[in-house]
Write a structure and sequence with these properties.
2 domains; single chain; 35% strand; OB fold (Dihydrolipoamide Acetyltransferase, E2P); alpha+beta; Rossmann fold; binds adenosine-5'-triphosphate; elongated; 6-stranded mixed β-sheet
Length: 354
C-alpha cells in the first residue's frame, strides 16, 4: 500500500485548461472521493493518476515514487470502470484471473487469489458463468474482483455505481465501504453523487471547474463548508440560501431581500455593511407555535420525515421535519430557526464568514 500525492498538477487539452493547479495529499490506506459537477475535471485527474492521460505540469507521486512518466502497468494500481469493461467471452473466473495470467503467475497462485477474491465478494458460485448471465450488481462485483486479485497499492474507481438502479447502488455502496475496511487499500474514487461521497469517504475532495474547492472529512464539509459552492453541493436537500444584509442597528438580525428579519447568533464584524447570503440547512428549522408564520407551497411526506417547501425571505425554502405535518399547500405553519447553525457567506466572494 502507498499514499498518493498530487503536487500542483495541471492539464490542458490543446489551449483549454481543465486542471488548474491541484494539490491533494492522500494517506496510505485512506478512502478518498473526488466529487464535483459534470466537467469539473475529476475523471481527468483519476486518469492522470492511472497513467491513461499525461500531465501538462506538476507531479503525481504514488508512495515515494514520482509516476509522471511511468506507464499504467508499472504503477501498481487497479482501476474499476463505470462500464465494468469485462471480457464477454470469458467466464467470471477467467475475467478475474486475466491480469495474473498476463504477468505469468502460476496456476496455483491464480486459483488461490481468485478463490479468495471470489469469497470476499460472494462470487464463488458464479465463477463459471459468463458476464451476460450476471446481474448488474454481480458484474460490478466481478470488476472489483479483477482489481482485488492484483493486490495493488492503490484502487481507482471511476463512477462505478452509476449504471446500477437506486436500490442496488445503496447496497453496493455499503459493500465497497466494507471491502475497504477489510483490505485497507488506498482508494481514490470519482463520483458526481455527493451522497456517495458523504457515505463512503474518509476524506472528500470537492472540485469545481478544474480547481479544488475544499478537502475534508464528510461531516466537516457539511458543517463548515469553505464557501457557497461547497455549501450548495454537499447536503441533500441542499442548504437554503437567502439574500440580504445585517441590520445596521442590530447585527443579530439579518434583513432578507423581502424585508423579513432572520436571527444570527454570532454576527462576525466582516459581515457588516456587505451583501450576504444567509445559509440555512433544511433541518435547522422547527415547527414552533411561537415562531413566524409561513405559507406551505409543497409538502412531501416520506414516512420517515416530512419535507416542505415554504416561501420566506424572498425565496423558496426547503425544511425537513422528523414529525409528520398535516398542513396542506396554501395553509400557514409557524417556524423558528436554530440561529446557532446559521451560516453567513459574503455574496461577492462566496467565502463563508460564519
Ligand atoms: P463527468 O462527471 O461528466 O465525467 P468530469 O468531472 O469527470 O465530468 P472530465 O471528464 O475530467 O470531467 O472533463 C473535464 C473537462 O475536460 C471537460 O470540460 C471535458 O470536456 C474536457 N475533456 C476531457 N477529456 C478531453 C479530451 N480528450 N479532449 C478535450 N477535452 C477533454
Amino acid at each position: 500500500m502507498a499514499g498518493v500525492d498530487f503536487v500542483d498538477v495541471r492539464k490542458s487539452f490543446g489551449a483549454f485548461p481543465v486542471i488548474k493547479g491541484v494539490n491533494i495529499e492522500i494517506e496510505d490506506g485512506e478512502f478518498v472521493i473526488l466529487v464535483g459537477p459534470s466537467g469539473c475535471g475529476k475523471s481527468t485527474l483519476l486518469r492522470m493518476l492511472a497513467g491513461l492521460e499525461n500531465i501538462s505540469a506538476g507531479e503525481i507521486r504514488i508512495g515515494d515514487k514520482v509516476v509522471n512518466a511511468l506507464p499504467p502497468k508499472d504503477r501498481d494500481i487497479a482501476m474499476v470502470f463505470q462500464n465494468y469493461a469485462l471480457y464477454p467471452h470469458m467466464t467470471v473466473a477467467d475475467n478475474m484471473a486475466f491480469s495474473l495470467m498476463l504477468n505469468g503467475s502460476s496456476k496455483a497462485e491464480i486459483d488461490k487469489r481468485v478463490g479468495i477474491a471470489a469469497g470476499i465478494l460472494g462470487l464463488t458460485k458464479l465463477l463459471d458463468r459468463y458476464p451476460r448471465q450476471l446481474s448488474g450488481g454481480q458484474r460490478q462485483r466481478v470488476a472489483m474482483g479483477r482489481a482485488i486479485v492484483r493486490d495493488p497499492q492503490v484502487f481507482l474507481f471511476d463512477e462505478p455505481l452509476s449504471n446500477l438502479d437506486a436500490k442496488l447502488r445503496v447496497a453496493m455502496r455499503a459493500e465497497i465501504k466494507e471491502l475497504h475496511q477489510r483490505l485497507k487499500t488506498t482508494t481514490v474514487y470519482v463520483t458526481h453523487d455527493q451522497i456517495e461521497a458523504m457515505t463512503m469517504a474518509d476524506k472528500i475532495v470537492v472540485m469545481h471547474d478544474g480547481i479544488v474547492e475544499q478537502i475534508g472529512a464528510p461531516l466537516d464539509l457539511y458543517d463548515s463548508p469553505a464557501n457557497l459552492f461547497v455549501a450548495g453541493f454537499i447536503g441533500s436537500p441542499a442548504m437554503n440560501m437567502i439574500k440580504g444584509r445585517l441590520d445596521p442597528q442590530n447585527p443579530n438580525s439579518f434583513i432578507a431581500a423581502d424585508g423579513m428579519a432572520l436571527p444570527v447568533a454570532r454576527p462576525p464584524s466582516a459581515a457588516r455593511g456587505r451583501d450576504l447570503i444567509y445559509g440555512l440547512r433544511p433541518e435547522y428549522m422547527a415547527l414552533d407555535p411561537n415562531g413566524f408564520a409561513v405559507t406551505v407551497a409543497v409538502i412531501e411526506p416520506t414516512g420517515y420525515e416530512t419535507q416542505l417547501i415554504v416561501r420566506f425571505g424572498g425565496t423558496d425554502v426547503t425544511c425537513v421535519f422528523r414529525e409528520r405535518v398535516t398542513a396542506r399547500p396554501g395553509e400557514a405553519i409557524h417556524l423558528s430557526i436554530d440561529a446557532d447553525h446559521v451560516h453567513l457567506f459574503d455574496a461577492e466572494t462566496g467565502v463563508r464568514l460564519i
